[in-house]
Amino acid sequence: MERLRPGDKIYSSQFGRGEVVAVEGFGDGETVEVRFEGGELRTLRPEQHRLELIEAEVPARIPLQRELNSPKRDEPEGDEEMIHEEIRAAVRDALQDLLGLGESELSGRWAGGKLILKPGKSDTQEKEVDLDVFFHKIVMVRDQLRVLEQKINSHPKLTDEEKVALQHYITRCYGSLTTFNALFHLPEERFGSTS
Fold it and tell me: Is residue 123 helix, strand or coil?
């Protein structure tokens, strides 16, 4: 992950969207002060909390088509907007639970570890990746496979035969990823043919 700077927009799966206010330290000792939506100010370590830089500005609220077509009305009052945000957060949490998405924990023995890719040629440089970062990417792959599985199973135009055939490919993907099961703290979060 590139170094965060004040003004950067970030996303945390634990705390939501926010803006970096200050950065202190460097490397493993770096901390950032982030003001999250709702005004909460937190001091975090970017790698530990898996902060993701939001590349393009994402609107906080996407207007409905009927709102775009209707005459301009006043913005919702503070209380109304707060209720809307609470509903959005509740729906987001419910969907994550339903789809089996969300925060997974790296097994303790691997915390702070590094993945070292050592090339076969002696004249080329090896590559080091923090295991926290690598683990986060594995979890994202797992979560996307689960979403794909849900979309296939609920697709109205696919026949049962097509769904079974596509499901077979997903099962193979899970099987190919079992190598990384040692990284997961909880056994139920690991890859398997019944994931």
Answer: coil
**N-term to C-term CA, the chain:** 29
User: Exposed e or buried b for every residue in 46-72, given b needs 16+ CB within 10 A?
Assistant: bbebbbeeeeeeeeeeeeeeeeeeeee
Distance CA 170, CA 150 (A): 11
Q: Could you tell me if residue 9 is left (phi over 0), alpha (psi between -120 and 50 degrees) or otherwise beta?
A: beta
What is the enclosing helix (H) or strand (E) of 9? strand 9-12
**Same domain? 113 vs 50:** no
Give the C-alpha separation, 12 to 17, whole Å: 6
The letter for the amino acid at 79 is: D
Supply the pLDDT for residue 161.
92
Q: Say if 156 falls within a structural domain.
A: yes
Q: Could you give phi then psi for residue 145, rounded to 5 degrees?
A: -65, -40
| 185 and 112, same domain (yes or no) | yes
Tokens of 164: 């079974």
Neighbouring residues of 170: CB distance < 8 A, sequence distance ≥ 6: 145, 148, 149, 152
Provide the mean pLDDT of the chain: 77
How many distinct structural domains can be found in the chain?
A: 2
pTM, to two decimals: 0.44
Nearest to 59 by CA among 17, 93, 102: 17
Structure-token match 């769904």, residue found: 163
